[in-house]
Design goal:
heterodimer, A: 512 residues, Amidase signature (AS) enzymes, 8-stranded mixed sheet, 17 helices, globular, B: 515 residues, alpha+beta, Arc Repressor Mutant, subunit A, 3 domains, 9-stranded mixed sheet, 18% strand, elongated, EC 6.3.5.7 (chain A), ATP-binding (chain A), glutaminyl-tRNA synthase (glutamine-hydrolyzing) activity (chain A), transferase activity (chain A)
Chain lengths: 512, 515
């Protein structure tokens, strides 16, 4: 067994799980170590919107007791986790980064959260995100942005920047994410962490506050491929509460991550993802990774997906359309914020709805609601929503064609490393372009993963490589990801995150 | 109470001389599945407000719908019973609009891919002729919650102090059945409308898919009416070629009688406007049961855009042809045919059959006959006291009888007691009263009350002799051949016997002694 580091927050989830299983450490100890770390560094990083100290410790104690009573527990029992604030948690605030849900305490758990609880993972708290998962930087959170632990002046990616920065600053060994156009993968790329968007339907959406129902997919986030696989196995599987959930066993992701074998695999480099607009350092690390995969025994070919160039345009019709309808429920009638219009005597329900939505939604949310409302309007539906669905079908065809010749596809995850906070806030198109490589997978429903590929030469910041696989072949992501990770870590002489600033937290000092 | 001033209306016959009416009916039916359309909440009517709700039907953030398979089956059966095509593949769609009683601010419905389409229902009119109503579609959707507006004069949202919403109804499965434009009915349009809704109600009841209680809102009707100039007889080609006029949609017309009245009223109102050179505003109208008029509701315009799109949270419904055929096998005999068969089996006149149908007693009589009663007796007993009392209570006979524990077996038993000569008619009535009062089965009531015809001929003969002796004048008339005078003596014999005699036998004895 691997020796645990003195500072438990630096350990992998897999190592913590082993130590917990052998009763070397207790879940209360591990959970407390992370709560201390949060207290020490979250003031700088702002990863959490809510820390549930009491709840986490109570769950940790409960799982310790279950273990001591001899109960057989799941692989990650006792390992604490951070949950993206888009998933409902019974009795714990859930805001989705929006004012409009300020103070809402859900009466029910998302299926993913239920699975985490049943598997014995203490929930440390809820992580920050762009409002209703609309954004690539967390700057659209109504509660202020999270910061990238590699450079606190930079974005941690989005919308799941809370979860990615939690991992990169060692405030939790695991986190959940949701990925509608890249919200798991792009934050992973810019923080040198790992994140998987499973096959659409592979993880239940029940209790996930919907952004775009046909694109949203919950998935696991970790610092290593194996940790991410272990969490994937806990989160995944059929849910009768979600009609779009796939009724099939979770693909053998943990086995694939442990085997870490790419020999004989055919890997396609997507021609359309990686040219113009991609930062040279990102491109260089990607090329090295591809070369490494070849050295590991994979066969690498170039593959063309000609319709990917229309993906962004189609995405920005489908997403706002669905979002405009999904977000209609926030009307001040039953829960969340209620704002009365100023200067109106005895306002009508309609006036209260309008005033609340005006005050409760941020600019980006309003922008997309307006876009979607317009795109679905009678007379425009066919030209916008209808055409976008056709593009979607074409992109799925591109994937099908590609997968008839290769086992997986690869590309850089995001075109650039983390940009500075504020840099793209006034330019929505520039922000949207950050997801150009990740969006096709959401449109086609296929799984994708991002793992660190190294640091870009020009700015020393993390870059990520994206691996894409056919639907329900999620295990291939882990085969390739784990093999590449192993080779890269050997080359680097240790995990890339060891090179991130320590943030000088008190917890780190205490652990040393 | 409506405060609105009544519009001008034209005399109906005059209107019919000038205009040709066209109707379209939209009927919403709540299915009586045990659970809601997209969640596991119960659907019972009348529960404590907001006690039958969950994250799904309250539209809480994150909740997702799952289709009730039983509701899909019911929808398919309704479609088949309406002679519709059943879609091989169809989707739900979101109908987006804001209203506080709709938790998600969109209704999960169907749009351009209904589960059933292109059907018809043949409707029998009072004169025995048949009108074929073409069905455009039947689709699945969910009901909304129910708003209760407190304060204000009208009970409508306008002018209310505040509103309460009960979400128990939110998510109850609904089937919306939409007709094609109903043309060619001419002056019989109101009758056709009523007959259609009535036939639809019978059909849905026979399918056992809904309570079809219009007064409780489990069946609701919206009536579209438009007029076009009359150029010939209703079915003349020239008449059918005249373009349709602007329609109004009268909402929530919730009794059979109101359907007829509302259509008739709208025809007269449109006629008055058109005849005066005005034009009809395309709008929804509210029906006022008390005053028998409609008033203006919402103006429909192009601005009303529901932004329909396929519901991404649900997968398509794709019933296999085997499933559809299996469901076709579960369809009941069409109510019209069934009625004709039963009328002939029972030997009822048209009038008698209509009374039975109107009383809602067809099934009761069928079961009573099956339990051994004669058809004539079954009709006589059910349409007598029980029917009268149910009417007085404002209930239908089936639920009234069920509430009192009166069963077809009871009526058959009662008929058996009469046929066996144990009870006469008046005693049988008393026994029925006892059964209705909860005193037990007819036999038990007869026993307890000591009701039994005296079978002892000696006692009867003694009473007859006594009455003849006491009424020599009457006896003389009978001897002279005035047989009708026997009635007076029979009455006295019955009195003498305290009602427990067989009147027929008494008559025979009197006549035998005096002729």
């Amino acid at each position: 067994m691997t020796d645990l580091p003195t500072d438990l927050t630096r350990a992998t989830a897999a190592d913590l799980a082993d130590a917990l299983a052998s009763k070397t450490i207790s879940s209360v100890e591990v959970t407390q170590a992370h709560l201390d770390r949060i207290a020490a560094v979250d003031g700088q990083v702002h990863s959490y919107l809510h820390v549930d100290t009491e709840g986490a410790l109570a769950q940790a104690q409960a799982v310790d007791e279950r273990r001591h009573s001899g109960e057989s527990l799941g692989a990650l029992a006792g390992v604490p986790i951070a949950v993206k604030d888009v998933m409902t948690t019974r009795g714990v605030p859930t805001t989705c980064g929006s004012r409009i849900l300020e103070g809402w305490i859900p009466p029910y758990d998302a299926t993913v959260v239920t699975k985490l609880r049943e598997a014995g993972l203490p929930i440390l708290g809820k992580t920050n995100m762009d409002e209703f998962a609309m954004g690539s930087s967390t700057e659209h959170s109504a509660y202020g942005p999270s910061h990238n632990p590699w450079d606190l002046d930079r974005i941690p990616g989005g919308s799941g920047g809370g979860s990615s920065s939690v991992l990169a600053s060692f405030q939790a060994p695991l986190a959940t994410g949701t990925d509608t156009g890249g919200s798991i993968r792009q934050p992973a790329a810019v923080t040198a962490t790992v994140g998987t968007k499973p096959t659409y339907g592979g993880v239940s959406r029940y209790g996930l506050v919907a952004l775009a129902s046909s694109l949203d997919q919950a998935g696991p986030c970790g610092r290593t491929v194996l940790d991410t696989a272990l969490l994937h196995a806990v989160m995944g599987g059929h849910d009768p509460m979600d009609s779009t959930s796939i009724d099939a066993p979770v693909p053998p992701v943990v086995e694939a991550a442990r085997a870490a074998d790419v020999r004989g695999m055919r890997i396609g480099v997507v021609k359309e993802l990686g040219g113009e607009g991609y930062q040279p350092g990102v491109r260089a690390r990607f090329d090295e990774s591809v070369a490494l995969l070849e050295e590991l025994g994979a066969e690498v070919v170039e593959v063309s997906c000609p319709n990917f160039e229309y993906a962004l345009a189609a995405y920005y019709l489908i997403l706002p359309s669905e979002a405009s309808s999904n977000l209609a429920k926030f009307d001040a009638m039953r829960y969340g914020l209620r704002v009365l219009p100023e200067g109106v005597d005895a306002p009508s329900a309609e006036q209260v709805m309008a005033a609340t939505r005006d005050a409760g939604f941020g600019a980006e949310v309003k922008r997309r609601i307006i876009l979607g409302t317009y795109a679905l309007s009678s007379g425009y539906y066919d030209a916008y929503y209808g055409s976008a669905q056709k593009v979607r079908a074409l992109i799925a065809q591109d994937f099908d064609a590609a997968y008839s010749t290769v086992d997986v596809l690869v590309s850089p995850t995001a075109p650039t490393t983390a940009f500075k906070l504020g840099d793209k806030l006034e330019d929505p198109m520039a922000m949207y372009l950050n997801d150009i490589a990740t969006i096709p997978a959401n449109l086609a429903g296929v799984p994708g993963m991002s793992i660190p590929s190294g640091l870009a030469d020009e700015d020393g910041l993390p870059a990520g490589i994206q691996i894409l696989a056919p639907a329900m072949k999620d295990e291939r992501l882990y085969s390739v990801g784990a093999a590449l990770e192993k080779a890269l870590v050997d080359r680097w002489g240790g995990p890339i995150l060891d090179r991130a600033p320590s943030l000088g937290g008190a917890a780190a000092a205490k652990g040393a | 109470m409506s405060t609105a001033t009544a519009d001008a209306v034209m005399d109906y016959d005059e209107a019919m001389g000038k205009f040709d009416p066209v109707m379209g009916l939209e009927v919403h039916v709540e299915l009586h599945t045990a659970t809601k359309m997209f969640c596991g909440c119960p659907t019972e009517f009348g529960a404590e407000p907001n006690s039958q709700v969950c994250p799904v039907c309250l539209g809480l953030p994150g909740a997702l719908p799952v289709v009730n398979e039983k509701a899909v089956e019911s929808a398919i059966r309704i479609g088949l019973a309406l002679n519709c095509e059943i879609a091989e593949w169809c989707r739900f769609a979101r109908k987006n609009y804001f209203y506080p009683d709709m938790p998600k601010n969109f209704q999960t419905s169907q749009y351009d891919e209904p589960i059933a389409f292109e059907g018809y229902l043949d409707v029998e009119l009072e004169d025995g002729s048949t009108y074929r109503v073409e069905i455009e579609r039947a689709h699945m959707e969910e009901d909304t919650g129910k708003s209760l507006h407190i304060g204000g004069a009208t009970g409508r949202i306008h002018g209310a102090d505040h509103s309460l919403v009960d979400y128990n109804r939110a998510g109850i499965p609904l089937i919306e059945i939409v007709t094609k434009p109903m043309v060619g009915a001419g002056e019989r349009a109101p009758e056709v409308a009523k007959a259609y809704v009535s036939a639809l109600r019978d059909l849905l009841r026979a399918l056992d898919v809904s309570d079809v209680k219009m007064e409780q809102g489990s069946m609701r009707c919206d009536a579209n009416v438009s007029l076009r100039p009359r150029v010939g007889a209703p079915l003349d080609e020239a008449q059918l070629a005249v373009p349709l006029g602007t329609r109004t949609e009268t909402k929530n017309v919730n009794s059979l009688r109101s359907v007829e009245r509302a259509v008739r009223y709208e025809i007269s109102r449109h006629a008055a406007i058109l005849d005066g050179g005005g034009s009809i505003l395309q709008e929804t109208r509210h029906w006022h049961e008390d005053t028998g008029i409609t008033t203006s509701g919402r103006v429909k315009s192009d601005a009303e855009d529901y932004r329909y799109f396929p519901e991404p949270d649900l997968v398509p419904v794709a019933p296999t042809r085997e499933t559809v055929e299996a469901l076709r096998g579960t369809l009941p005999e069409p109510p019209g045919l069934r009625r004709k068969r039963l009328q002939s089996d029972w030997g009822y006149s048209d009038l008698e059959m209509r009374d039975v149908v109107n009383a809602g007693a067809v099934e009761l009589i069928e079961e009573t006959v099956a339990a051994g009663a004669s058809a004539a007796a079954a009709r006589k007993w059910w349409l007598g006291e029980p029917s009268r009392r149910a009417n007085a209570e404002g209930q239908d006979i089936v639920s009234y009888a069920a509430g009192l524990g009166l069963t077809p077996a009871h009526i058959a038993e009662l008929d058996g007691l009469v046929a066996a000569g144990r009870l006469n008619d008046s005693m049988a009535r008393q026994v029925l009263d006892g059964v209705l009062a909860g005193e037990g089965t007819p036999t038990a009531v007869a026993d307890a009350r000591g009701l039994e015809l005296v079978q002892d001929d000696g006692a009867l003969e003694a009473a007859v002799d006594k009455v003849i002796d006491a009424n020599p004048d009457v006896a003389a008339k009978i001897r002279d051949g005035k047989v009708t005078a026997a009635g007076a003596l029979i009455g006295q014999v019955m009195k003498e016997m305290k009602g427990q005699a067989d009147a027929g036998k008494a008559r025979e004895l009197i006549l035998a002694k005096l002729q």
